[in-house]
Amino acid sequence: MLIGQSPEMVKVKRLIREISKTDSNVLILGEVGTGKKLAAQEIHKRSKQKNRALVVVDCSALGNTVSEIDLLGQVYEGERGIERKIGLLEQANRGILYLENFGECSAEYQHKLYNIFKQGRFQKPGEEEFTSVNTRVFAASTDTQLQQKDTIRRDFLSLVSDFTITIPPLRERKQDIPLLFSHFIEKMYEETGRDLPAVNAELFDSLMEYDWRGNVQEFNKALKNVVRMSPEGELAVDYLPFEMKRHPFEFLKDRELPEAVGEVERYLIRKALRRFAGNQSKAANSLNVSEAALRYKMKKYGFNRKAF
Fold it and tell me: Which of 168, 186, 206 is the endpoint of a domain?
């Protein structure tokens, strides 16, 4: 469920309701953590395909961890004679195919998928006959400028974008933060059976002032950590990540030196990676460390390059 009552989210929700009444393909754009898959699920739940599958395919994995056989299926000679493997496309027949990381689809698979969607059929490896497929397509990308670039062939992009939904980043709809806070906190405490705690004013101010580059996903993760670590009956600002605190250096005064150094390192590395959109070479240069040292620190602190 997409949470928010800001003008930006009201517009998104209205568009979702209108798109749900159609059988059109949809391009969903938004930064990491904005809720693109939630938007797809909301349309699916309201659409004619609600009783059919919503099948997810990670376009960045096609040809790697997701093989052509995974996508198309296969006909092969098994122990009991001819056997058939049903692929992801066939699973999505008469339902919805959700193309995750659409902007990272290789030229080879853009060509294959475009022809399949255009013709409404494909051949499985090992089979001469064609298999028909009729699926609605949702394509999602973190690149909000995808339509202005040449990474996706024009005819394929046109085919999947009868409608376009752009989900705004959380920093552009901060009036939704109180709603998100209430939703996540109530859900977390309901799951644990604990009474709702008192909320520290410093904590709430910090949440409102932070720019949330990881959007709702980062917001939810931060709250989970605060709930998990805080004493019974309260939500302590001490357990927010260093860079989210309103006055971060005040919270280092009672820390041992290695812990304080780690907090500052984590903050500076994240800031550099965000500044250079995950480019490790540029981030390392700005921090005056080697790329090898940066990669070591990223692994140590659990940073994923794709998150930036």
Answer: 168
Q: What is the domain extent for residue 29? A: 7-168
Cα of first residue to Cα of last residue in the chain, in angstroms, is 24
Instruction: Report how many domains make up the chain.
Output: 2
Residue 1 lies in a domain: no
Retrieve residue 47's tokens. Answer: 């659409």
Phi and psi (nearest 5°) for 264? Answer: -65, -40
In a shared domain, residues 163 and 193: no
Q: Classify residue 81: in a domain, yes or no.
A: yes
Residue 117 lies in a domain: yes
Query: Both 92 and 77 in a single domain?
Result: yes
pLDDT in tens, 279-299: 899 988 888 889 999 999 898
Give the pLDDT band (50/70/90) at residue 3. Answer: very high
Which pTM value belongs to this model?
0.80
Task: Give the residue from 168, 183, 200 where a domain finishes.
Answer: 168
The pLDDT tens digits for 227-272 are: 988 888 888 888 887 778 765 555 555 666 677 677 778 878 887 8
Which residues does residue 50 pair with via DSSP β-bridges, in sequence order?
A: none
123 and 155 part of one domain = yes
* Helix pair angle (7-20, 36-46), 10° resolution: 40
- Do 71 and 138 reside in the same domain of the chain? yes
Residue owning tokens 């059988």: 23
